[in-house]
Amino acid sequence: MSEKKIATTAVRAGINSDQHHGAVVPALHLSSTYALKGFNEKRQFDYSRTGNPTRATFAQAIADLEQGALGIVTSTGMSAVHLICQLLSTEDTIVIPHDCYGGSFRLFTHLAKRGQFNLLVVDQNDQQALSQALATKPKLVLVETPSNPLLRLVDIAAIAEQAHQAGALVAVDNTFLSPVLQQPLLLGADIVFHSTTKYINGHSDVVGGVLVTKEQSLGEELAWWANCIGITGSAFDSYLALRGLKTLPIRMKQHQINADAVAKFLQQHSAVEQVYFPGLAEHPQHALAKTQQCDFGAMMSFEIKGGVDAVKVLFDKVELFTLAQSLGGVESLISHPSTMTHAGMEIEAQLEAGITQSLVRLSVGIEDIEDILADLSQALEASQQ
Ligand SMILES: Cc1ncc(COP(=O)(O)O)c(C=O)c1O
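^ thats the input. predicted complex w/ pyridoxal-5'-phosphate below
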């Protein structure tokens, strides 16, 4: 059979894999342990922290979508980020972006303070700063593109080429786009990871993570650590996330139709100072988005006129948008990065990254676009009175 399209791979993940009963949908295996056949005669699975059939099906599905060698399912997105840190010894250096997810920033800065590795925080679009960082021969370069919350892009192919020349591995946080819209391993990255809490599960009822490696050996090293430190994902979460994954391609289509309309609406609104969305022709990296992404995603942020007072009224007035952390679910969410998702960053670091008090982030859901726009319209209007 010819190579399948991504929607087919997502829907067919694990289907017809039950040899015993012929169950169409892969089963949920909750057993924590598995009987050996006899003395020192293990089956494929022996203990669910190490391996679990439901988790393995989900891991394989993501590895297939990312076109990598091996997938590792972790308990949260943050434990996937933490797992990457296991590749670093005390003398190693990691380069991270100055505007990554606040939780990742907090983890890296606090582990570095305890001497677990050397850390360089750089604006990866500042070529001079990046070259200086790479000249220190780091072990790892972490990339988040588009970034949370400002939707800045990093050219994955270009950074991978430079990082590899310097002897570094490249790990890309692909949470904002999912493998349906961006496949970093095909652009030269060595590791791609996700908070599956977001688009992959898509229904805001699982907290989870996943990592996929291009090379089998690197995947095995990380899988060894995931078992060793005990951060593998649960069977139940894997089951739900696999179910969510099946509709990921179709959900992304609707998310993007809605996001495109919202971005254009915000762009012309008098209450809005600036919109950050790579799908807009005015976005400074619109051309890059068109080449390395299949589409533009459904995350965006904007600066509202009137500062934090206007933000407060906006949040008070929205009815359809829910004021909540997280993103990527079918429902529309609104948040204030400075006091919510990026509160783990010191205010100075926030400002350095461009996160102001008037910045509002939207995760555009798949409700009817007329309702979404009507809600934003009335709340924005109220924010300016
Ligand atoms: C881009 C990004 N990476 C990683 C994470 C961490 O994921 P989790 O909350 O599942 O631990 C998040 C969470 O918001 C995120 O937005």
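Residues 76-78, 101, 103-104, 144, 148, 173, 175, 195, 197, 207, 209, 341 surround pyridoxal-5'-phosphate (CB under 6 Å).
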